[in-house]
Design brief:
- The protein has ten helices and nine strands.
- The protein has a single domain, classed as 2-enoyl-CoA Hydratase, Chain A, domain 1 (Alpha-Beta Complex), CATH 3.90.226.10.
- Helix 1 runs parallel beside helix 2, helix 2 packs antiparallel against helix 9 and helix 4 runs antiparallel to helix 9.
- Helix content is about 50%, strand content about 15%.
- With about 260 residues, the protein is an alpha/beta fold.
- The strands form two sheets. It has a six-stranded mixed sheet, with helices on both faces.
- Bound molecules: ligand LCXROUX7.
- Ligand LCXROUX7 binds next to helix 9 and helix 10.
- The site of ligand LCXROUX7 has 33 residues, from helix 9 and helix 10.
- Homotrimer.
């Protein structure tokens, strides 16, 4: 993978007071420990500055995020893997449970953890193109953690979520629109950001405390479930990583990604 140039995230505040959080880990914004830590710090910053809203996007021209960095899970140092997983949990708790308004401008592919980040926002606009979005874990022989599933069930109807999760369905932009996995499509990144801003402006006349408490109450179930089961969730993740069969399939998966990239 290419060496990192520049900061892993960019956090800027526009003239309307909207925070734009841009993931910047070329080539595919795979979520390693350091990127997750930086996303977490930026979410803290947005909350601390009482910014009214945030748009999550990517600096890549074709990938929103490739999901978790496979290299964090392949033959890992178990202490780092534990910190990696708890940092991912923290990021999800901060994003899914945030009181400020959140939207994702999905400017490219969003498999697995990339889909999770976008679904944790309140609104999704995806750029038209040959991009796909979804939770593909079962295709990799693994089970998405319960909170990944809960997040999908908060986004699309439960029947569709069950079907998508069990079949590892990767949705095209049109299919995602049809099922409600995304709210709008856009011609390019600028259009996606504009559409996210239009969504954010819908709240101009809604009292912000009422909005925030309503959001938190509606999202309370999945949040409490993870908060109560964090240790068990982490233990399950580490248990997976210790399984030689999982390590073997990871190795094969990495090879297949590399072969595809080399073509
Ligand atoms: C995968 C099995 C995990 C098993 C873990 C075990 C237990 C865990 C238990 C529970 C956790 C479960 C939760 C998992 C959630 C996840 O997010 S897993 C990650 C799933 N992500 C993917 O499957 C996406 C794979 N990537 C792609 O499909 C494509 O790269 C893309 C995103 C569609 C982009 O395509 P594009 O053509 O633009 O790029 P390339 O494919 O050429 O890739 C460039 C470069 O980047 C490397 N790479 C791609 N994805 C990842 C990644 N997720 N992690 C690390 N590296 C990645 C790719 O190998 C290329 O590298 P290079 O050859 O060195 O250039």
């Amino acid at each position: 993978m290419a060496a990192q140039a520049g900061p892993l995230v960019d956090l800027s505040i526009d003239n309307d007071g909207i925070a734009i959080l841009t993931m910047n880990r070329p080539p595919v914004n795979s979520l390693n420990l350091e990127l997750l830590e930086e996303i977490g710090k930026s979410l803290d910053e947005v909350a601390k500055n009482k910014t009214k809203s945030m748009i999550l996007t990517s600096s890549s021209p074709s990938v929103f995020s490739a999901g978790l960095d496979i290299m964090e899970m392949y033959k890992p140092d178990l202490k780092r893997a534990e910190i990696f997983w708890t940092t991912l949990q923290d990021v999800w708790i901060k994003l899914f449970g945030s009181s400020y308004i959140t939207a994702a401008a999905i400017n490219g592919h969003a498999p697995a953890g990339g889909c999770l980040l976008s679904m944790s926002c309140e609104y999704r606009v995806m750029v038209e193109g040959k991009y796909t979005i979804g939770l593909n874990e079962t295709a990799l022989g693994i089970v998405a953690p319960t909170w990944f599933m809960d997040t999908m069930c908060h986004t699309i109807p439960i029947r569709q979520a069950e079907y998508a999760l069990t079949t590892a369905r990767m949705f095209t932009v049109d299919e995602a629109l049809q099922v409600g996995l995304i709210d709008e499509s856009a011609s390019d990144k600028a259009d996606a950001i504009d559409k996210c801003k239009k969504f954010i402006r819908k709240f101009d006349k809604i009292p912000s405390l009422a909005r925030a408490v309503t959001k938190q109450k509606i999202r309370e179930g999945p949040l409490v479930r993870l908060q109560k089961n964090r240790q068990q969730d982490t233990a399950e993740f580490l248990g997976f990583l210790k399984n030689p069969k999982i390590q073997q399939s990871l190795e094969m998966y990495i090879q297949s990604l590399k072969q595809k990239a080399a073509k």
